[in-house]
Design brief:
Strand content: 25-35%
Shape: globular
Number of strands: 30
Number of helices: 15
Distance between the termini: 32 Å
Largest sheet: 8 strands, mixed
Helix content: 25-40%
């Protein structure tokens, strides 16, 4: 075991410095395993969390940073597939990255660990998915001008519908079969041209589940009474595993649906880009919110750190109409920060208002006295779609669960959390599971299936002793599922599933207006890719300063695990 460089009780409480990744991970374990009076668990928007954050300097760390050192069982799985590069490390001489959070006139400092590593590393995969979610959240913010307003008088309701669409257990059963996980290839005909439609018998279960979500999106237009000349948007991700027990398949879809629509014609790639380029490049609202536009330069609000910055240039396809394909050249400057956050915010809101007017933005009705979606009808719609697709393996039509939650326009941090969870990599949950449960993978090609059942029965026994009815029902269901799946498949199939899951890339797809609008950013020339980062604690705006240091002086360490926060007070006061 590598030694912790600085023991908290022997060093200044506000100074943190680590010489390697092992010492940093040991420190995280120390924080999570040791309970002092200054430790506290907090949720989003809790006063305790805001008190620790506002006006203070914090070290904000994802609890999953400990997965940067993979469990030995995961290493066995990687190496059985010939994957040798799965390591990570603290950046030498630049252990921490620094940023500033601004919210309601209060400025706070945020340090975060600068962990770099190989593609297959669980935490590096998580960082990549989180970065993608940050970019998506930035664009979602622009779509309808998400400024905080009084909903009682606002015509912009600006809410997001968060759905979890489940599949029947029989689909999970087939996912253990490697033949059912092989993606279907397009038919070839007439001189190597691809046929657009595939025969259902040639589509594997992953493609068939994707077919279900595509049909679901199409049906939503009638469900929400979207005007015929308008189109919805949906961003969705297919998960084939359970976060709690990933060794068993659990297929479901996470979908985030903006509760508004845009004109079909306006958001076509050629129309959208032409309209977008028209006047967004040189104009920004003046200091008077109701005043005219004034000419500005991006240098007025955005600056870049030249020292050590990286540039990556490539061509990316925007879209195609008929035989015409549009491309743009992108240059990404890694180090950037915003000089004038207020001016930046006003420009973004102006951009959103123009988009809303020009592209026929229509928000759906929302009333505090009436729930805007009939959940029972939504379940029926999804159940019909899945049964129509999978009736060859389903004995009867099941009423499938559809979990619904709402993200209001002012809860930007919750929207960010949902987008991050939606793109979460399976290998992260697999590594967390292995860290908690040993001796499941016992060699480079062996797995102990009996240990999986033993764990479920052990958890059920604890639930029975605690009279936890919810946990009892959950583990009884999991035991029934595990006995059915494991009893029909060999240990080799179980090991094959773990190999598949360790390299599975979450299948994320966008539909409707998000297919074309998703690429637009503040700078239409795409010379500087600037996104507004949202603070996961307070909904504030985060500005990266570009400063990197090998130590940090902080008041609090805040560990985030999904939507929970562990607060560790380094100042000593309560």
């Amino acid at each position: 075991m590598q030694q912790l460089l600085l023991q908290p009780e022997k060093t200044p409480k506000n100074l943190l410095k680590f010489d390697n990744l092992g010492s940093f991970v040991s420190y995280l374990e120390y924080l999570t395993d040791t309970h002092f009076s200054e430790n506290a668990i907090a949720d989003f928007d809790s006063p305790l969390l805001k008190k620790a954050h506002f006006g203070n300097s914090i070290l904000l760390v994802e609890k999953y940073a400990k997965c940067s050192i993979p469990d030995l069982q995961l290493e066995f799985i990687f190496e059985s597939m010939g994957i040798q590069n799965y390591n990570a490390a603290l950046e030498p001489g630049a252990t921490f990255k620094h940023s500033i959070c601004t919210h309601e006139g209060v400025t706070s400092e945020i340090f975060s660990p600068n962990i770099t590593g190989e593609h297959f590393n669980p935490y590096i995969r998580f960082q990549s998915s989180s970065s993608s979610a940050v970019r998506s959240c930035s664009k979602f913010m622009d779509l309808a001008g998400l400024e905080i307003t009084d909903l009682s008088v606002s015509t912009h309701d600006n809410i997001f519908l968060d759905l979890v669409l489940t599949f029947p257990s029989i689909v999970d059963f087939y996912m253990y079969n490697p033949d059912c996980r092989v993606r279907a290839a397009a038919k070839i005909y007439n001189g190597s041209k691809h046929k657009s439609r595939l025969n259902i018998s040639q589509i594997n279960f992953i493609d068939r589940m994707n077919k279900c979500r595509s049909e679901f999106f199409n049906c939503l237009h009638s469900f929400f009474d979207v005007p015929s000349n308008n189109i919805l948007g949906m961003s969705s991700s297919l998960h084939v595993w359970s976060s709690e027990f990933p060794v068993l398949p659990n297929c479901h879809i996470h979908a985030v649906i903006p509760f508004f629509s845009y004109s079909k014609k306006s958001v076509l790639p050629s129309n959208f880009l032409e309209s977008f380029l028209m006047d967004f490049n040189h104009y920004v609202p003046s200091n008077d919110p109701n005043g005219s536009l004034s000419i500005f330069s991006f240098s007025d609000i955005v600056a870049f750190v030249e020292n050590g910055s990286k540039k990556v240039k490539h061509s990316r396809q925007i879209g195609s109409i008929g035989c015409k394909t549009s491309y743009i050249d992108e240059v990404k400057l890694v180090e950037r920060f915003i000089l004038d956050p207020d001016l930046y915010k006003r420009f973004r809101l102006h951009l959103s208002r123009v988009l809303a007017d020009r592209f026929n933005f229509i928000p759906f009705s929302w009333s505090s006295a009436q729930y805007p979606v009939d959940i029972d009808k939504l379940k029926d719609l999804w159940s019909d779609i899945v049964y129509n697709e999978f009736q060859d393996i389903m004995d009867y039509r099941e009423l499938l669960d559809v979990h619904v939650s709402w993200i209001p326009h002012y809860s930007k941090s919750k929207l960010l959390h949902k987008l991050q969870y939606k793109t979460r990599p399976a290998v992260l949950d697999l590594d967390l599971f292995f860290k908690k449960h040993s001796n499941i993978v016992v060699n480079y090609n062996k797995v102990n299936s009996n240990k999986i059942l033993d764990l479920l029965y052990y958890n059920l026994e604890i639930a029975l002793r605690c009279s936890d009815n919810a946990a009892i029902n959950r583990y009884e269901s999991l035991i029934k599922k595990a006995e059915q799946i494991l009893g029909s498949h060999s240990d080799k199939d179980v090991f094959s599933w773990l190999q598949f899951l360790s390299t599975w890339v979450t299948d994320t797809r966008v539909y409707g207006f998000l297919r074309n609008i998703k690429r637009y950013m503040l700078d239409p020339d795409h010379k500087i890719l600037v996104e507004q980062q949202i603070c996961s604690i307070c909904n504030g705006s985060i500005t990266t300063t570009g400063i990197k240091t090998n130590f940090c002086i902080v008041d609090y360490v805040i560990l985030r695990s999904r939507s929970k926060f562990l607060i560790y007070n380094l100042k000593g006061d309560i």
